[in-house]
Amino acid sequence: LVIAKTPEVKSHLGKQFFYKTTKRSYRAIVWGRMEEESGTVRTNLARDPHDRLIFAPFPYEGDIGKTAVTHWRVIEELGYLSMIECRLETGRTHQIRAHMKSIGHPIFNDERYGGSQILRGNRFGSYKQFVANSFIQCPRQALHAQTLGFVHPMTGEEMTFSCDLPEDMQGLLEKWRVYTSS
After folding, report:
1. Is 114 left (phi over 0), alpha (psi -120 to 50) or beta?
2. How far is CA 3 from the centre of its chain?
3. With contact defined as beta carbons under 8 Å apart, do 61 and 67 qualify?
4. What was the pLDDT predicted at 108?
5. Which one in 8, 82, 103, 137 has a CA-CA gap of 20 to 30 Å to 127?
6. Which residues contact 167 (CB under 8 A, 6 or more apart)?
7. Could you tell me if residue 104 is left (phi over 0), alpha (psi between -120 and 50 degrees) or otherwise beta?
8. What angle do CA 8, 13, 16 make, to 5 degrees?
C-alpha cells in the first residue's frame, strides 16, 4: 500500500504505475508442477460473461478486455503443488488468479478460480484428508504481495519494500515439504 501526502506526489506515483515502471512481485502456491522453469502469460482480461465476479482471458491485444502480462518462475516444487514468483507488467484485477487458472495451475485454495478442490493426486483416504487439513492451514487463496519498488517522487531514489510470507502460507509450505519428503 502506497499513500501520497500531496497531490504532486500522488501524480508522480500515479505516472509510475501508469507507465509500468514500478516493480511488483508476488508469491503464489499453485496446483501442479509447471512444465518449464519460467514463462509468460499474455492475454486480455475482462469480466467473465457467465460470472461477473471473475475475470476471463481473451486473445492478447484483441477487441475484448485489457492487455495483461504476467511473468512467472518456479521457486519450489512440492509434490502436487508449486511455489512460484509472479512479476507483473500490468496490474489488472485478479490478473495472477485468472492467468494461473488459464494455464491449468489455479492458486491453491482459490475458491473463485477453482483452486479450492483437489486438482492433482487422488481423491481418496489419507491424501484427501491431508489436502483438507492444508485448506484449513491456509484458509484463503495462497497468494502474497511480496515486493513493491518505485522511484521516490521527491528524492529520485529507487525504493524497494518486501515482506515475508504470512504464517499461513509458510505453514502450508512446511506441511507439503514434510509430506513430499516421506
Report:
1. left
2. 23
3. yes
4. 98
5. 103
6. none
7. left
8. 135
pLDDT at 157: 94
For residues 144 and 110, the answer to whether their CB atoms sit within 8 Å is no
**The cell 504532486 sits on which residue?**
8
pTM for the whole structure: 0.90
Angle between helices 125-137 and 167-181 (to 10 degrees): 160
How many residues belong to the chain?
182
Spatial distance between the Cα atoms of 174 and 35, rounded to a whole number of angstroms = 23
Report residue 39 as a C-alpha cell.
Answer: 514463462
Instruction: Supply the pLDDT for residue 133.
Output: 96
Nearest alpha carbon to residue 113 among 88, 130, 129, 96: 96
pLDDT at 91: 86
Successive 10-residue mean pLDDT values, the chain, 182 residues? 89 88 94 96 97 96 95 96 95 96 98 94 90 96 95 92 96 96 84
Q: How far apart are the first and last CA of the chain?
A: 40
The alpha-carbon radius of gyration of the chain (Å, integer) is: 18
Phi, psi of 56 (to 5 degrees): -120, 150
